[in-house]
Amino acid sequence: MTATAESAARTTRWVSARGVSLEVRGAGDPVLLLHGIGGSAAACGALAEVLSTRGYRTYCWDAPGYGQSADPAPGADGSTGRYDHALVVAELIAELDCGPVHLIGTSWGGVIATVVATADPASVRSLVLADSTRGSGVSRERAQGMRARIGELRAAGAPAFAAARAGRLVSPGCGAEIARAVESDMARVRLSGYTAAAEFMARTDTGPSLATLTASTLVLVGVDDVVTGVDESRLLADAIPGARFGLILGAGHAAVQEKPGAVAAHILRFWKELDE
Q1: Rounded-to-integer distance, Cα 203 and Cα 84, Å
Q2: Any transmembrane segments, and where (predicted)?
Q3: DSSP three-state, residue 165
Q4: What confidence category does residue 6 fall into, taking pLDDT thresholds of 50, 70 and 90?
Q5: Domains in the chain with CATH codes
Q6: What is the distance between the alpha carbons of residues 232 and 225, in angstroms, rounded to a whole number?
Q7: What is the residue-averaged pLDDT of the chain?
Q8: What global pTM score does this model have?
Q9: Kindly report the CA angle at 106 between 105 and 110, in degrees rounded to 5?
Q10: Pick from 234, 262, 227, 265: which is nearest to 248 by CA?
Q11: Rounded to the nearest 5 degrees, what angle is found at the Cα of 49, between the Cα atoms of 64 and 18?
């Protein structure tokens, strides 16, 4: 059996009452991984594979409207403009009865994770923010830019949308196989999921609440990240009490896909320090 086949054999699926699908690996302390706005559970798979072999049970979600998950349910106004992904994550932790969890969020997933850790600190054992941000609600211009992506996706279709954007997510030295995987993942995004995600980003600014975070936090960023950038990650680390900061060499915004081993090494060292 090949390494890929062995990995697949160790991976199971769990679906919540809301229809949120998670890839599950390993056994041990629970780790919940939240992908970025252009990804899916697959984007966190390589990192989860490493962590699951080190004594952790990993859960990689397909966010509502992504991958194998059901579309996000519209609100009373018939839209998903106020869809609360953080509430869904909190419900998942409760439904799985696995809290407190090590919560890992990359990019948009990190914004969700920050909101969860702020609103329900008892459910979060530690927080890892990879190539993340405060959200696009930090300014009117960024919020408008995020919302504009919805129209771009609708007009172009997912494959063309991905072809135009995916190259910025990886470092200049990224291997062709990883670059293709990043683009392929984005090419499968659904308008329903992306719309709810973009609206979440556009209305969110976690900046004012960062100083209130009590979860032990690690902030990681690829040195070649040109999407959210190193400076934004440094800002997060500086604003969160006691946060650690780490750079991932040879990686761009999609650091968890480009360098899963390096990302895992930082995380495992961080968790070891927490237990000492």
Answers
A1: 11
A2: none
A3: helix
A4: low
A5: 3-275 (3.40.50.1820)
A6: 10
A7: 94
A8: 0.95
A9: 50
A10: 262
A11: 20
